[in-house]
Amino acid sequence: MENLAYKTKSIWEKADGKAQKLMHDFAKQYVRFLSENKTERECTEYALNRLKQAGFGNDFADGRYVAVLHNKSLFAMRRGKRDLSEGFRLITAHSDSPRLDFKQNPLLETVGVAQAKTHYYGGILKYQWLARPLALHGVAVKKNGETVKIVIGEKAGDPDFTISDLLPHLAKEQVTQTVSKAFQAEKLNVVIGHIPLPQKGKDKQETPIKSHVLKLLNKKYGIAEEDLLSAEIQAVPAGEARFVGLDSGLIGGYGQDDRICVFTALEAFLAVEEPEYATALMLWDKEEIGSEGTTGASSRFFEYCMQDCISAWAPAVPFSKVMLAGKALSADVHAAIDPDWQELHEKQNSSIIGYGPTLCKFTGSGGKYGANDAHPEYIAWLRNIFAEKEIPWQMAALGKVDHGGGGTVALFLAVYGMNTIDMGPSLLGMHSPFELSSVADVYYTKEAYKAFYGA
Ligand code: MN
Ligand code: MN
């Protein structure tokens, strides 16, 4: 009898030695990317360099266009064989990740250490950021417009930074408090120095440790305290991403939400060199704080870029016609069922790590509120593409109904009337300083995006 039931499978079950090697080789490239790109600026610069090497530039005539806004968001488009009036294939991802941003006047000195005050960026569990090595990444822009890139704490021999945590001996009251009370944002101060400047003569320094920090910053970057007012410095987990498990089947590292999609979408975009339909890649910033701001998905940058491409490649076609004919994947990560928190997931409609990239028909919460509910026709079209290329995938929703939820940038694409759905690999420990992904999912996410771009 024909088997009518549906069941997902682990990719590993059917991956032979050759397939496993292919997946691991790709994962190694991803691990390097993740280790070297820890801010939206760094990701944008990386993507721009890769695209330039592949012949993308600001000349519309050769059909390979790339534009960057404020060094933080990037749009690229490749002309297809068909006219733009027939539509395009778009994948969007975001390159910002949760972290601790330095406040604009960050430095203080008390009781033997200098610290930098922070304001956390995005959704974090504050206790995950304590008592671990942190690196500093960012830029300082001087009054004369000169931009100084800052990266400290990644290279061998570099010092790291940290937020010291309370000792258990004095945590008697803390452990009885709720998490939101026990861990306060104003205590997320990064230890940045300890040795005071030697006191010379009569002009005694009031804060000699802070003065020493400023002296070292000035020596390394030529900046003074006032330059910090216009700086963006991010404290992020220090060190490289790495393989996890005796079998090296998982990848652990910071910022996989959503750089795993940035990397796989970029690789897929570059791989499909002669697409039938025009292909586009949009890397956004500010997703983790609501997509506002000039470089976030709610800005008009994407629209301006599309208008420019239409004027260059199909000037007679109305903007609305192109946009309505577009097909998009909002590439973002999904939450895999956590082995230790299985009760929070509705298992029949949740994704399992290593079972392939996840399609998410709707995000939102409590009665699908705030969701872009992808259309059945579109999902069926995608199913067909993935079936043809034998790409494993799974359908899932985030957590149990009425137990939370979340949103992505799909809504900002949906406003144009184009077909849109969320799709990306599942992570364990999303938003933590050490998120986990599956080597198999990374590979097949890239393959799925490739199939979509080529369809
Ligand atoms: Mn995300
Ligand atoms: Mn996120």
Descriptive keywords:
eight-stranded mixed β-sheet; globular; binds manganese (II) ion; 10 helices; 455 residues; alpha/beta; six-stranded antiparallel β-sheet
Unreliably modeled segments: none
- The share of residues in extended strands comes to 15-25%
**Radius of gyration from CA coordinates:** 24 Å
Secondary-structure class: alpha/beta
As laid out across the biggest beta sheet, the strand order is: 1-2-12-3-13-17-15-16
Alpha plus pi helix count: 10
Could you give the count of β-strands? Answer: 19
Characterize the largest beta sheet: strand count, sense, and whether it forms a barrel: 8 strands, mixed
Terminus-to-terminus distance: 33 Å
Bound molecules: manganese (II) ion
Shape, per Cα inertia axes: globular
Please write the string of helix (H) and strand (E) elements: HHEEEEEEEHEHEEEHEHHEEEHEHEEEH
User: Mean of the pLDDT scores?
Assistant: 96
Portion in helices: 25-40%
Summarize the structure.
The protein is an alpha/beta fold and 455 residues long. The chain has 10 helices and 19 strands. The protein binds manganese (II) ion (MN) (2 copies).
Q: Which helices and strands, and how do they pair?
A:
Blueprint (H helix, E strand, L loop, with lengths): L16 H20 L3 H14 L10 E6 L3 E6 L9 E7 L4 E12 L2 E9 L12 E8 L5 E6 L26 H4 L7 E4 L14 H14 L9 E7 L4 E3 L5 E4 L2 H16 L6 E7 L16 H13 L5 H6 L2 E5 L2 E2 L22 E3 L15 H13 L5 E2 L14 H5 L4 E6 L1 E2 L7 E4 H16 L1
Parallel strand pairs: 3-12, 3-13, 13-17, 14-18, 15-16
Antiparallel strand pairs: 1-2, 2-12, 4-5, 4-9, 5-8, 6-7, 6-9, 10-11, 11-19, 15-17
Helix pairs in contact: 1-10, 5-10
This protein binds manganese (II) ion (2 copies).
